[in-house]
Amino acid sequence: MKKSSLHHVLPGFSLSMGYTLVYLSLIVLIPLSAVLIKTAHLTWEHFLSVVTAPRVMASYKLSFGASLLAGVINSIFGFILAWVLVRYRFPGRRIVDALIDLPFALPTAVAGIALTAIYSGHGWLGQYLEPLGFKIAFAPPGILIALIFIGLPFVVRTLQPILEDLEIELEEVSASLGARRWQTFFYVIFPIILPALLTGFALAFARAVGEYGSVIFIAGNIPMVSEITPLMIISKLEQYDYEGATAIALVMLVFSFILLLAINLLQAWAAKRTGRVR
Amino acid sequence: MAGTISALYKSSNKESRYESNAATREPIWIKWTLVAIALTFFAIFLLLPLVVVLVEALSKGWSVYWETLVDSETLSAVWLTLTAATIAVPLNLIFGVMAAWAIAKFDFRGKYFLITLIDLPFSVSPVVAGLIYVLVFGAQGWFGPWLAEHDIKIIFTTTGIVLATIFVTFPFIARELIPLMQAQGKEEEEAAVVLGAKGWQVFWHITLPNVKWGLIYGVILCNARAMGEFGAVSVVSGHIRGLTNTLPLQVEILYNEYQFAAAFAVASLLALLALVTLGIKTWVEFQASKTMQSVSLEHEV
Amino acid sequence: MSIQVKNISKAFGNFIALDNVSLDFPSGELVALLGPSGCGKTTLLRVIAGMEQADSGDVLLEGEDAATTHVRERQVGFVFQHYALFRHMTVFDNVAFGLRMKPRKQRLPEDKIAKKVHDLLKLVQLDWLADRFPAQLSGGQRQRIALARALAVEPRVLLLDEPFGALDAKVRKELRRWLRKLHDELHITSIFVTHDQEEALEVADRVVLMNHGKVEQVGTPEEVYAHPATPFVYGFLGSVNLFHGRVEGESVRVGDDRLPHEASELAHGAEVTAFARPHELEIIIQSESGVGIPAKVSRIFSFGLVTRVELEGTEGAINQHFEVETTRERVTELALIEGKNVRLVPSRLRVFQNQ
């Protein structure tokens, strides 16, 4: 019995699957594996000395710390934005909704120079802030601002569909059972959207850790103070230290994988919680 | 990318319902406090940077602005940016359609693992994305010696820029199409096959019309990122003026040379591109939600 | 066209959907595949259509092995449960789809296609809807369009997957009468899948009862209803009262009580399950002790000619529920009221030996 050609009703499985795997391997998997293989040439001591050098350690602290803080700030304000966009009518709602995605569409370099022009010593806002003692550009707070900018849409766009799907009936039941509005929010609404909020946070965080373009203009790139980890890779590359660059890249990759795994688990959890198919 | 078009399935404008319903209404002062917080945050963090770009671009007047745009280096950067996008977007489009077809219309083991692999470039730092191609094709890389022998250059050339661009925009279209095609199931395609349609007929007459808005949406986002990518391209370009500079890299060079007005002029081109992207995106969302609403209506009847 | 399936088996992972199924579908008949959800009926339909590949066994169309015939060439008309109408096409384009997909050499000119589509739309009495989109139709209308679309390619077999499943009760009734009439006009071999026994018994020439991937019984609606071959079939077709007991000569012993049961090939002492339909149970007031099951009336309600009496078992039959269909006159005659103690005696009992 000739089965293979009849195995699927719809045609094209072998073709589309084959193409997908080949293209994925050529563009993503093989080049990525270069990082692993290149690092394998290093001795363990050498690897460790590169990735734990004081300047590199300082960059981890800055990158992760600023990304974490940006993620938290985005979770709070992104949540308010998503809530306001879903629940309220106010003038300009549609324009705000459309422009939320600006950080996705605006090239990071453009964002970088624009933010610098706002927050530098004689910038639009910087000229008022620096006399008050708030040095933002060319210091860690500037990095934080850039990371807030690029991470915001992740939180808003993850929360929006969940808030829109929320059944009004749940709130009606809650109110009819005597709950006050804040009780309904904390005991009914918040638990339902929590997984989505965490997913949005994780997505924003992951993006922030790897971000380069919008940060380097505003960071000032002062060793031990305002150098982010991706910049360490670039500076190693500029010194033709490919091993060093690769070793740091491996640390970042491992971290990305862990975050990706966490995000997938969060999304599975969110799907279970809200009954949405992902 | 957080917002996919399949999220539009159930979205409809219900906000007036919330405000007229006693069970879902907050006191009016809470509403306006929240709106005020949201709008202030929005204005400072999103709107202001956009305004700055457009204002700074014209700070030295229209003539400097115009001169910058018609400068030969700018024009070659425009050309290279367009080239990279014209190669990367169609390639990722073909891939996106292929991957979505395989994943959404067939069952196989490891499907979710495959989707995760496709997502991978989203979570890789752009700098690392550039680095991996240097490791493969650079002078010190795997194919470095072989390429040098045959006098082929990839790193510090257009080819390298195109490769890096393909990598960073790799998942955009697939990620848009996969959930959409999964949500639509395969019954319509099966019905078409039973009625005698061949493979490409099924795809062309049934699948494509059903996913066209998601497809356009993905292409637009993919294109925006392809034209705007900075980190990955920066690593593989070598910054050779008039040869391997894309528009974002040109912004950086001008800025580092303290030609701020010129840098912002080039940046304003990219900002306009971003606005056009958002405009088309909003229009596509509107079209798609119209179609989706008629679909969800269908389920209610 | 006749269809034969021989020794078909199909598993999805650990779940056995079809377990060595063999069936004959004679030409021109309207056959119902009936069974609870998960019994394998839809899988069987999809295997016949060629949309699912059996793990083993053969499908013969007109006596020919169909293993190497692709769905596209099997010339089956398939009506999907949720219709699978192409939502971006008008009703007309939906029905015309199959005709337009033919290779150029076999394709009819567009005016012939238009004529044919309009004829089909007339056949399903919906030609006035030609320019609408599926979203603008009611469920019953979509169902008929799906049928017209399947008929357009002149299939040799018509396969329908839960054709009335998504419709409300009234439309269902109308449509199934209409389907029966249509089949009487066209005489195309048709198989439809359903979990609704009333639907199967009312519409089909023959009924195939399936459970757990196996065929339980095949027969005309009268046969399967009057002479169920297995306990499953008995339970599945209509309401039923059930007794567990042992064969004792001319009766079945249930606890301390006795149910009369005539001819039986079953051995003395065999453990059995006995069935009686609600209209096959008699209510009696006094009896020589031990005949019939003791029960207490819990509810009486009547609609039309039928009066239904619900009873709770008492004494040895505690925690059992019974349902009796009788007439209003009989209820008056016996002076039945709620709470009254009675006995139940089957006028007819079907006995199956326990496995």
List the helices and strands and how they pair.
The complex is a heterotrimer of chains A (278), B (301) and C (355).
Chain A lengths: L12 H28 L3 H8 L2 H34 L5 H7 L2 H4 L2 H12 L6 H4 L10 H26 L2 H9 L4 H30 L2 H7 L9 H10 L3 H33 L4
Helix pairs in contact in A: 1-13, 3-8, 3-10, 6-8, 6-11, 8-10, 8-11, 9-10, 10-13, 12-13
Chain B lengths: L14 H6 L7 H30 L3 H10 L1 H34 L5 H13 L2 H12 L6 H6 L8 H12 L2 H13 L2 H8 L4 H30 L2 H7 L9 H10 L3 H41 L1
Chain C lengths: L2 E10 L2 E11 L4 E5 L6 H9 L6 E6 L2 E2 L10 E4 L11 H10 L9 H14 L15 H14 L4 E5 L7 H18 L2 E6 L2 H7 L2 E6 L2 E6 L1 H6 L4 H6 L4 E8 L2 E4 L2 E4 L10 E6 L4 E4 L8 E11 L2 E8 L7 E6 L1 H7 L6 E6 L3 E4 L2
Parallel strand pairs in C: 3-8, 3-9, 6-7, 7-8
Antiparallel strand pairs in C: 1-2, 1-4, 4-5, 9-10, 11-12, 11-14, 12-13, 14-20, 15-19, 16-17, 16-19, 17-18
Helix pairs in contact in C: 2-3, 2-4, 3-4
What can you see in these coordinates?
The complex is a heterotrimer of chains A (278), B (301) and C (355). Chain A has 278 residues and is mainly alpha-helical. Helix content of chain A is 76%, strand content 0%. In chain A, 51% of the residues are buried. In chain B, α2 (28-57) crosses α14 (260-300) and α11 packs antiparallel against α14 (260-300). The model of chain B is unreliable at 8-12 and 296-301 (pLDDT under 50). Chain C has 355 residues and is α+β, with helices and mostly antiparallel strands. Chain C is elongated and about 85 Å long. The two termini of chain C are 39 Å apart.
